[in-house]
């Protein structure tokens, strides 16, 4: 719906990586934002932000950047809408669902600005206190894997000839962790070695939106069934993006 469009659009101007978007995800849930709308932001923020678009524009021109923007937003909007329709709020972890809902209405709360700031710091301490071990483990794992990216091997099967190159690229992107700016040099190297643009962009989106470190962090706030649904819906959208790029470019 319109709320998913707005949430995904907000993600364009918020250059968060997937891990830093998780605390915002918790805050949105606590504020009473519908789950599907929250997921639209969680997907869009790391994947379709201004950093990625600027770099893509500089490397490939406005046509590729606009096509990536349109398809990336579509993935975020549709995935969030689907998750919202599935009514999976029960698959949030209990501590997230049990967090007191907070109103965004400044006047209704009767709180002074200083009290709101203090309350914000308290909420940050509470959230970080619960998720920081998962964040450290996720980032450390992603950093170790990201340090070794077998570009020659990956480029060898990322051509347009084999239909399975796109799903394989998506699967290979999952164990890695980086943000849009960090993965662009890998994208450039793969393209220089002859990889197809759609396959490489599917790999890029998988690294950003479906990384294993992100799943480790999300496991603290989501139950397994909701994580599996999130991965399945987003992966389907990323596959579509890869096939479309390979077909039209």
Helix content: over 70%
Mean pLDDT: 78
The low-pLDDT segments are none
* Helix-strand makeup class: mainly alpha
Largest sheet: none
Strand content: under 5%
In short:
The protein is mainly α and 249 residues long. It is built from 14 helices and no strands.
Could you explain how this protein is built, in words?
The protein is mostly helical. It has one domain. It is 75% helix and 0% strand. The protein is built from 14 helices and no strands. It has helices at 2-12, 18-30, 35-47, 50-60, 62-85, 94-97, 106-109, 113-146, 151-156, 165-173, 180-192, 197-209, 212-218, 224-248. The longest helix has 34 residues, at 113-146. The chain starts with a helix and ends with a helix. The model has no long low-confidence stretch (mean pLDDT 78).
Task: Break the fold down into its secondary structure elements and pairings.
Blueprint: H1 2-12, H2 18-30, H3 35-47, H4 50-60, H5 62-85, H6 94-97, H7 106-109, H8 113-146, H9 151-156, H10 165-173, H11 180-192, H12 197-209, H13 212-218, H14 224-248
Helix pairs in contact: 1-3, 1-5, 2-3, 3-5, 4-5, 4-11, 5-14, 8-13, 10-12, 11-12, 12-14
């Amino acid at each position: 719906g319109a709320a998913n469009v707005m949430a995904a659009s907000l993600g364009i101007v918020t250059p968060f990586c997937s891990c830093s978007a998780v605390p915002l995800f918790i805050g949105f849930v606590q504020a009473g934002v519908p789950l599907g709308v929250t997921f639209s932001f969680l997907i869009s923020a790391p994947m379709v932000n201004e950093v990625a678009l600027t770099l893509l524009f500089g490397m490939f021109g406005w046509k590729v950047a606009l096509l990536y923007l349109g398809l990336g937003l579509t993935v975020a909007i549709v995935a969030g809408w689907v998750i919202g329709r599935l009514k999976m709020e029960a698959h949030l972890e209990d501590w997230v669902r049990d967090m007191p809902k907070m109103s965004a209405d400044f006047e209704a709360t009767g709180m002074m600005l200083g009290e709101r700031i203090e309350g914000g710091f308290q909420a940050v301490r509470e959230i970080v206190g619960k998720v920081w071990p998962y964040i450290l483990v996720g980032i450390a794992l992603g950093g170790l894997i990201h340090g070794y990216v077998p570009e020659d091997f990956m480029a060898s099967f990322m051509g347009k000839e084999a239909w399975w190159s796109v799903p394989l690229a998506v699967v290979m992107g999952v164990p890695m962790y980086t943000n849009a700016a960090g993965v662009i040099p890998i994208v450039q190297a793969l393209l220089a070695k002859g990889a197809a643009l759609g396959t490489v962009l599917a790999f890029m989106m998988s690294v950003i939106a479906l990384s294993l470190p992100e799943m480790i962090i999300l496991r603290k706030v989501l139950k397994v069934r909701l994580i599996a649904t999130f991965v399945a819906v987003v992966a389907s959208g990323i596959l579509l993006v890869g096939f479309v790029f390979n077909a039209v470019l």
